[in-house]
């Protein structure tokens, strides 16, 4: 077997090693902030360790294997970057003014109130309402095993404390994922005498979540859709955007 020689493969090895080190450091930050409670929180640690170990074995690869591996990593990287660019573009589009309904997608409720991620969504919905006081806000989300109340109720209570009139808030507290959030919100709109397809809606969620939410809303039957994002801790955004990449793939496979 022809062993690796030349500056090209040496540069590739160094790039992979540097990315691996960056992943390891970022993975430690993610675990320190979010804790070891979800499997995906270990993604950057695992990916960084894999890349570093790969560079240790790099010099023992034959040229053909190295070329295939380099090309595979390049293609995966391009797919990831293009997908992330599309996801990011939806967080940059401004929401349309004068919406009939703002649908706030639920997130974690803790004993002391909304999580940072959920608070960012609720604050975003509040900002939209201040400039569009005729809109109704639909808070979504059921009660999880470790949550004191449903995400919808906890979100509604937070918005009421922030100054939004109770009568302007609708509660949907049966949904357990994004698809159900939007599907049940559509049913609630119909129950109020509205038409989901004919209503102007703004989906409020985490910025990284808006593209997937928009796709699901179209599948459910919404037609006049815009989005507005909420931002949690900035340092965690790469983690969340990466997780969304895999969530999007899972959504495509499940073919909702």
Jot down its keywords:
256 residues; alpha/beta; 5-stranded parallel β-sheet; 57% helix; elongated
Describe this structure in words.
The chain is of the alpha/beta class and 256 residues long. It has helices at residues 7-34, 43-58, 63-92, 116-131, 151-162, 178-191, 210-220, 237-254, and strands at residues 101-104, 109-110, 113-114, 136-140, 169-172, 200-206, 224-230. A five-stranded parallel sheet has the order 5-4-1-6-7, with helices on both faces. A two-stranded antiparallel ribbon has the order 2-3. β6 (200-206), α7 (210-220) and β7 (224-230) form a beta-alpha-beta unit. α4 packs across α5. It starts with 6 loop residues before the first helix and ends with a helix.
In short:
The chain is of the alpha/beta class.
CATH architecture type of the largest domain: 3-Layer(aba) Sandwich
Main sheet: strands, sense, barrel? 5 strands, parallel
Name of the CATH class of the largest domain: Alpha Beta
Classify the beta-strand content into a percent band: 5-15%
**CATH fold-level label of the largest domain:** Rossmann fold
Q: Strand order within the widest sheet? A: 5-4-1-6-7
The overall pLDDT average reads 91
Q: Specify Rg, calculated over alpha carbons.
A: 22 Å
**Contiguous runs where pLDDT drops below 50 for at least 5 residues:** none
Distance between the termini: 47 Å
* Envelope shape: elongated
Q: Helical residue percent? A: 55-70%
What is the helix/strand order? Answer: HHHEEEHEHEHEHEH
Number of H- or I-type helical stretches: 8
Quick one: how many beta strands? 7
Secondary structural class: alpha/beta
The CATH homologous superfamily name of the largest domain equals HUPs
């Amino acid at each position: 077997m022809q062993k690796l020689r030349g500056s090209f493969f040496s540069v590739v090895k160094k790039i992979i090693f540097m990315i691996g080190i960056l992943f390891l450091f970022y993975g430690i930050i993610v675990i320190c902030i979010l804790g070891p409670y979800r499997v995906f929180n270990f993604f950057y640690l695992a990916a960084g360790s894999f890349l570093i170990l790969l560079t240790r074995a790099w010099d023992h690869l034959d040229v053909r294997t190295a070329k295939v591996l380099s090309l595979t990593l390049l293609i995966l990287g391009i797919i990831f970057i293009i997908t992330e660019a599309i996801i990011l573009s939806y967080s940059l589009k401004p929401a349309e003014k004068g919406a009939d309904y703002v649908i706030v997608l639920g997130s974690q409720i803790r004993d002391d109130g909304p999580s940072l991620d959920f608070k960012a969504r609720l604050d975003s919905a509040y900002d939209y309402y201040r400039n569009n006081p005729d809109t109704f806000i639909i808070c979504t989300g059921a009660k999880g095993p470790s949550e004191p109340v449903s995400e919808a109720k906890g979100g509604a209570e937070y918005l009421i404390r922030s100054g939004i009139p109770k009568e302007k808030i609708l509660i949907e507290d049966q949904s357990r994922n994004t698809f159900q959030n939007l599907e049940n919100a559509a049913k609630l709109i119909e129950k109020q005498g509205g038409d989901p397809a004919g209503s102007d809606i703004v989906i409020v969620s985490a910025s990284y979540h808006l593209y997937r939410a928009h796709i699901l809303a179209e599948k459910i039957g919404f037609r006049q859709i815009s989005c507005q994002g909420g931002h949690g801790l900035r340092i965690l955004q790469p983690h969340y955007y990466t997780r969304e990449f895999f969530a999007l793939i899972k959504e495509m496979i499940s073919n909702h």
